[in-house]
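Supplementary notes for students who missed Thursday's class. We covered one full example, reproduced here. Read the sequence, then the structure, then the short commentary at the end.
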Amino acid sequence: MVRILEGLRIVEGSAFVAAPLAGMTLAQMGADVIRFDRIRGGLDNARWPVTKSGRSLFWAGLNKGKRSLAVDMTTPRGQEIVTRLICQPGEGKGIFLTNLRVRGWMDYDQLKKHRADLIMMSVTGDRRGGPQVDYTVNPAVGFPMATGPEDSTEPVGHVLPAWDCITGQQAALGILAAERHRRLTGNGQIVELALKDMALAMLGNLGIIGEVTVNGYDRPKMGNSLYGAYAQDFVCKCGGRIIIVGLTQRQWDNIKAATHTQEAFEELAVRLGANLNREGARFEHRHAISEVLKPFFDTRRIDEFEAVFNERSVTWSRYRSFKQAVEEDPDISTDNPMFSMLEHPGIGTYLTPGNPIAFSDAERIAPVRAPALGENTDEILSDIGYSDGEIANLHDDLIVAGPA
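Structure (token representation):
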């Protein structure tokens, strides 16, 4: 089996989402990712969601495919172990991923004394190193004030930690870019990525900074509409809720054909004096468009139009809860090659995703469960040169630990 990142080793000291996600992404492409934690577990060792017995499903989800070292880093011997692991010589090694507040012996300047070409990816809260998380960054950049029902003035947070997710992927990309640079030049470096900067970059990339600066426009709440085009949710006769999207001309034409509203929209366009083939016009007149479409959904159950919508390639979706999605969506099943049924010791067997990227010249790697805390301690110590006797002494002196 070809593993795209075979031979690459990343040492990870992390917690929560962004950095663990970066490490897991690389592990699922074949890299050897070693996560080190305190003997009693890291900050996210018991992060919700958890099982009834208290085992973290969060940990199991974001540490798949890694190896685990449990070590007491408050001791000089523990610090020596982590330093030796991070700075181990060899091609593809010497890469450190962290979002911990590193200082002293674990900061970049100290570590690179042991390996001059060290690559260190440091994920921070803000560019000054301040403590920020997704749920503080998102309000700071404005999205909750533009989220929610049109008539609401209250901010609405988002359950998805989007900036964590994007930052995790960017951190993985940054590591690969720095590793390529090292192969070409022989030079290591520290790579810094701030969660808030990631959000601010997207604020600019999506045109929002320009919209404020150039147009003087502060985007208000618009419910479930699609800004700048047409999308709207409808409650159907059965009580189910769906959303349809008419972003492109083709999507718009497919909606009209599937709902038999071509003539009605021609009349509406004349009445409004608008060209509804323009996506901006569809947004401006979204309420009038929805009034034309509403009777279609008011008088039909979802199962009465689902087949037609799919045949006519309407861009649409049902609204589902997490539970409904897991139980109803065929893409959340082993029919999707990304997923496998995987046993997680102490938790149970359930559907588990692997890497969503499919390479044409490499077989998809099936997901590998997350390790128990300290599960790989002995083999990792052996890998970096400790003898069996030294490993035994480290256990006896409580410097390291195996799985509980």
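Commentary. The longest strand covers residues 32-37. Residues 9-202+340-401 form a domain with the Rossmann fold fold (CATH 3.40.50.10540). If anything here is unclear, bring it to office hours.
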